[in-house]
Every structure is written in C-alpha cells, then in structure tokens.
Amino acid sequence: MHLPRHNFTGPGTQLLWGKTRLNPDLSYKDWSKPINRVDEASYNHDTCYLKNKDTKIRNEVCDKNMIEELDAIKNPTIRERIERGIVKPTIKAKKMFGMRSLEAKDSIIYCVKCKSHTKTKDIKETVTKNNRPILKGICVQCGSKKNRFLGQIINRKVTPLKKKGS
C-alpha cells in the first residue's frame, strides 16, 4: 500500500521480495524511481531498515532521519506538503506507539528461582502456541529462563454459575 503513484511511501513496501524494487546494491531500479522528495525520503528510510535489523536502531535512527529529511525539504510543492503532512505524523505515531523497542522497564521480569524481580538479558518478544504475546529472556543473576505475558486473553468465554434451586 503506497501513496498514489509513489514507489516507496507507505507501509509494507516489498523491496527485495516478489517484484523487487531494488537492485542487490540497494539502488532502485529504473522503473521504481522515487517520484518526488517525499518518496526519496521514504526510499532512504526503507534502505536504512534493510541495513539495520535491530528494532531500537530502526526506531531511533531510521525514523528520526526520515523526519529530519522531510523537514529539510526546501520549497515543497503543494503535493509534497500534503504528503509530508500525512507521512510525518504517521512516523511519529509509529515511533511512539507502534513498533516500540524493548525498554529498560521491560528488562525487569520476576524470576521464580531468585524469587524477586531481576534484570533480564537476551529479551525477545514472541508469541505462544495460542498466539499470546510474551517476552522471553534469561535471568542475569541465576541464568534461568524467564517469561512474561504482555496481554490478556480477550476472547475468553465466562459462564456464570447457576444457583441451586433456581
């Protein structure tokens, strides 16, 4: 999904899979050139994502660079102003809410073996077999594995108890 006529501006741009938009050296192909400076900033943002696999770096570096690049556009056309007005708040919202990195408060998880909240290393955000989001990691003090569920089961059916004699 892209902004109209754009090749890179929008979520889910297929850069290296399917009908690839990039050459192996991460330069764009002739048929997928950015159409304006907003699309060019999106291209730079997408290649930054390809080069950096760490979510924290992506959020702090790539998103920040894109916002700075959009702010640095001199004499934007009306179309670029409108597109910039769509893209900037979206990236800022994604930075704040959507694709967050694991923060320091997430690294303190209760350890059953230590019987206290301890720091955790090698934290990974994953899902269980029944699709519940979970944090997995290793206790820094004792080395045991730790888990913490991130959400609640939403579709749980609760049947009320029936009173005797009713």
Automatic annotation (TrEMBL):
Domain DUF5679 span(s) in chain numbering: 110-149
Query: For the Phospholipase A2-like domain, which residue ranges apply?
Result: 1-82
A Pfam match is: DUF5679
Query: Recorded GO terms, molecular function?
Result: phospholipase A2 activity; structural molecule activity
Q: Write the lineage as a comma-separated list.
A: Eukaryota, Metazoa, Ecdysozoa, Arthropoda, Chelicerata
**What is the name of this protein?**
Uncharacterized protein
Entry-linked InterPro entries: DUF5679, Phospholipase_A2-like, PLipase_A2_dom_sf
Q: Which GO terms describe its biological process?
A: arachidonate secretion; phospholipid metabolic process
